[in-house]
Amino acid sequence: MPIRTDAAYAHELDARDPLAHFRDQFVIDDPDLIYLDGNSLGRLPRAAAARADALVRDEWGARLIRGWNEGWFSAPERVGAKIARLIGAPPDEVIVADSTSVNLFKLAVAALRARPGRTRVITDDLNFPSDIYILQGAIDLLGGGHTLTIVPSPDAIHGPAEQIAAQLGEQAALLTLSHTVFKSGYVYDMAEVTRAAHDAGALVLWDLSHSVGSVPVGLNAAGADLAIGCCYKYLNGGPGAPAFLYIRRDLQEQLVNPIAGWMGQRGLFDFGLQYQPAPGLRRFLSGTPAVLSLALIEPGVDLLLEAGIEALRAKSRQQTSYLIELWEALLAPVGYTLNSPRSADWRGSHVSLGHQQGLGIDLALINDMHVLPDFRTPDNIRLGIAPLYTTYAEIHSAAVRMREIVDTRLYEKYAGSAPVVT
């Protein structure tokens, strides 16, 4: 059956979309803008704007410090419990705290200290570079007694699962990977990888930043030990929103937070001079939570829970597959390559397309074509599909405009240009 590349077909798909009404729950300031960067920064939920106004005017403005006993203090656990429902964990295994990088540092150091005598940390070259920087810093601060092994992907698209399994041995202390990798969108088999690490006696720490809110994650079903993730991508929590961390319940009392702070203290208002960790997951809090930004995560999570992660995944699979069909028909003939897994089973909610003129095409999309994707070196134009608000018509229009940029050589306008943020 030939691939339909007409705009009418895209509108038919939108008309049949059972999740289409969720788009109205977001601020769409410019209806002509095609936004395909929700995998970097999600749109603003209307409820979050209303929540921000109430929080500032009514809670901070009117209630002042009384707000701590009226919902602020419990917000890390409350919002964490909601996120837990999206990632297959009980409510007391997820808490909102700090940034993704800080949480990764805390959990990596705690894991390495919990595996004395083991010296190897293993990751892959598809992991987010910031995660690797954090691991390098943690190893250095622990005295340099650990080594970091970065296993290369065979094609820069698919995770090297077999090669990672071959690296696991009696010296493996920690395996840490991005569940959905940031460039290609490849999704690891969490249960299989976790099982291999456990067979070797290692702990596993997953970065869920590109999975949470778009890909079903079964942390408990996979026996996962630790996880972190950000809240400003598919969770639509706002720029710089605090992150979350997960620790399996039986590990919570065994691990030690390397950044001990008063929010993780057993009796924080006793003001004792000897640190005693609070019971459960709260011991992995450190400083005072950022109440304003933390509270704005909740409306986006509520929308995801209302839609249902399985329904969101089904739409994501269909939309990314539709985009790949358009690539095959319209874009491959003019030099675009598919830099994501072809199979939806191994693909998250973004599709990377490569081109020799990738950066120039990206800039032309942004500046001339009213399309917002992002770019990742060396040639990846990353097109993020956010099932709550991305339409099939937008995907179709983006593909048509990407073809037009190459046909007209519009990318030549941006030769030598490179913005700071791509």
Give an overview in words.
- It is a single chain.
- The protein has 422 residues and is an alpha/beta fold.
- It has 14 helices and 13 strands.
- Strands 2-8-7-6-5-3-4 form a seven-stranded mixed beta sheet, sandwiched between helices.
- Helix 2 packs antiparallel against helix 11, helix 3 packs parallel to helix 11 and helix 12 packs parallel to helix 14.
- The longest helix has 23 residues.
- It is globular, with a radius of gyration of 22 Å.
- It starts with 6 loop residues before the first helix and ends in a 15-residue tail after the last helix.
- The relative contact order is 0.16.
- The model has no long low-confidence stretch (mean pLDDT 96).
Q: Roughly how many Å apart are the termini?
A: 37 Å
Main structural class = alpha/beta
Determine the mean pLDDT: 96
Radius of gyration over C-alpha positions, nearest whole angstrom: 22 Å
Number of continuous helical runs: 14
Task: Please state the overall shape, judged from the principal axes of the Cα atoms.
Answer: globular
Overall helicity: 25-40%
Kindly estimate the percentage of residues that lie in beta strands according to DSSP: 5-15%
Strand arrangement, major sheet: 2-8-7-6-5-3-4
Could you give the count of β-strands?
13
Low-confidence stretches: none
Quaternary state reads: single chain
How would a textbook summarize the main sheet? Answer: 7 strands, mixed
What series of H and E elements makes up the topology?
Answer: HEHHEHEHEHEHEHEEHHHHEEHEEEH
